[in-house]
Design goal:
It is built from 16 helices and 20 strands. By secondary structure, it is an alpha+beta fold. The N terminus is likely disordered.
Length: about 525
Amino acid sequence: MSAITDLVDHAEPREVPVRDGMVVASHPLAVDAGAAALRAGGTAVDACVSAAAVLGVVDPTSAGIGGDCFALVWDAARRELHGFNGSGRAPAAASLGDLRRRGLEQVPDRGLLAVTVPGAVDAWTQLLDRFGRRRFDQALEPAICAAREGFAVSPVVGRDWAASAGPLREGTGTDAYLPVPAVGQRVAQPTLAATLEALARGGRDAFYVGAFADRLDALSRAHEGWIRAEDLGAHRGEWVAPLEGIYRGHSVYQMPPNARGLVVLEALALLDEFPLGDLSPQQRTHLQLEAFKIAFEDVREAVGDPARSRAGALLEFDRIDARVADLEVRRERAEVGPRGPGGSRAVIVAAVDQEGNCCALSSNIGRRFGAAVVVDGVCLHSRGAFFVTDEEHPAALRPSARPYHTILPAMVFRGQRPWLVFGAGGDPSLQAQVQLLVHLVDGGLSLRDAIDAPRFGWVGGDRVRLEEGIDPATARGLRERGHRLDDAGHGGFGDVQAILLDEALEGASDPRKDGRVARVPASKD
């Protein structure tokens, strides 16, 4: 018997009480776009797509139409939860054999070999077609405006832009993002605006078929890349059944492989067997770190392309029992974990509309500024760098395979309805999700306090980073248990965007980013 189940509820559609709507995201302009969509009568999906499109303009180091997108959608009337896998595939010409002929031991982080088919544009259109009320061109309008008229660079985006500009070069397409702007400086992106306007006029085919695809094809051929126009033309994202795990009686939903949300579900399944609320902060922190090491080790070996992932048995009850025993052995002493989890900088949008529909949408372009390949103002993502060269591994580089993925929208249910709609971006997003739920469920914190609480993160081996504000006694306790504490510096602890659906809506945007929350009152009509 499996601890993972798909949420299936075939109840007849029902009337849903009207309530306020809410949008939360990591940038004020994205929140404005999502809130405007709700005020115009749009759904939670309309709000998320419009906000995500803006994030691709105002946070170009992290997201954009050159990247991928995953989403979870709750249909309140039908009481159904849906997942959408908007990740693109490796080019048909990509192969381990060709990689080795080039003298490479792995797919590079930068350059055209790292570029897989971008899935975001197709994902947005399919999400809108099924669960939206507004047209694609309406969803893109705020992003077009921001790109055409310019936007003020926000503090965290400005910091990330300056820190990530190394691969950008004058005289290449990447100079669309140079010179590095100062915080508060107004930046326009006219070339990207023109591409977005072409999408507004022509829909998804303006991206996957025609001039844009042909220009990417020509660039790839000129620089011996793998991707071709035919790869874009063949792309189609997929509706998938979310995966369910249980934590303290709550149903926790994540995306299935090629996403690595199973790390969160396995870590929570292990921690569910320990009374975290009764433990000291250092004991609680230690167990979370060890649970994450175990879960990541399991998932990294099992997850990759959906057709080849060996993830089905990871949460079988017998296996979890065995891994709980492993965690019990580590209760007072840290083990050296495998190579660190790595990751990428995703952006999150969460929205609830006035009818109770919910959407959590996550997107990114892989590394900062993706593959550092720009076509028509579009920074293309570097997802190909997440393939491995072990031919037997589910995440092995193969023609048309989907890469191992790090973006994680999530929902938590109490009973048969959503209780928490959220996601975490940045590094370490998986650990940030687990810590949030432990704070909420075991610690009884408010959503605001749970997000604001100082975080910790395992970064590989026996190394742990502690955010400023962690209690010194906790740091001492971790050292005594064998953890090696690195200097944390600033950043690198993920950012959470979340909405709690209790008696009233409560939203919180992580102070580690530039975002905010917008409440949209229910219409009185």
